[in-house]
Design a protein that fits this description.
Layout: E1 2-7, E2 13-19, H1 21-24, H2 30-44, H3 103-119, E3 123-126, H4 136-145, E4 151-154, H5 160-166, E5 172-175, H6 182-187, E6 190-194, H7 195-205
Parallel strand pairs: 1-3, 3-6, 4-5, 4-6
Antiparallel strand pairs: 1-2
Helix pairs in contact: 2-3, 4-5
Length: 206
């Protein structure tokens, strides 16, 4: 088991904590991490794009001029793709971009992402995050004390004061242990976890 330093909200070291190698010390599988990120982004796509083909554009049922003798190239319809107002050749249609990956693969990908954050020294453990009131400046002050600017912050419980204090900060994303995903972990420069969140993650994903 690896030992990580635990900080308080003032940015001071208050001790160390052992974290499980089963979650934060696995062999990194880059392929699974890539596949999990592609799946996350694909599942977010709406797939509502649509354009009309020549069969769906109204009009164009009559030949614009006779086949021969005009000096023009032969044309069968004014709604052919080469005409203004014509249909699109290979028009996009609504489709579902989502796909599934196995639960074991998704879990292994998340462990790889968490291990990467630890290996790159981008993992910060805080003893707790508690605020008496909802104030963005309080959260900003804590992140400044921890020397963190862009981060995914994982807390163990849905504390409304903590959650709402961070929602106006564009570089900070809040999450609970059961809602974290590979994309958010890899996108954030730092991963900030409370001690309780670390324990929950180890229980859920070990």
């Amino acid at each position: 088991m690896a030992n990580v330093t635990v900080y308080n909200m003032e940015g001071n070291e208050v001790g160390t904590m052992e974290i499980s190698d089963a979650v934060f010390g696995v062999e990194i599988n880059e392929h699974l991490v890539h596949m999990a990120i592609v799946q996350y982004l694909a599942n977010k796509r709406q797939g509502t794009q649509k354009a009309k083909t020549r069969s769906e554009v109204s009009g164009g049922g009559r030949k614009p001029w006779r086949q021969k003798g005009t000096g023009h190239a032969r044309q069968g319809s004014t709604r052919a793709p080469q005409w203004k107002g014509g249909g699109v050749v290979f028009a996009p249609t609504p489709r579902d971009y989502s796909f599934k990956i196995n639960k074991k693969e998704k879990r292994a990908a998340l462990k790889s992402a968490l291990t990467n954050k630890l290996d790159m020294q981008n993992l910060v453990v805080v003893d707790e995050l508690k605020f008496d009131t909802m104030k963005t400046k309080n959260f900003v002050r804590v992140m400044k004390n921890l020397n963190v600017e862009n981060a995914l912050v994982v807390v163990n419980e849905n504390d409304i004061n903590v959650m709402n204090s961070a929602r106006n900060i564009p570089t900070i994303k809040m999450a609970l242990p059961n809602t974290i995903n590979v994309y958010d972990v890899m996108k954030a420069r730092k991963l900030v976890l409370t001690k309780d969140a670390v324990k929950t993650i180890e229980e859920v994903y070990a």
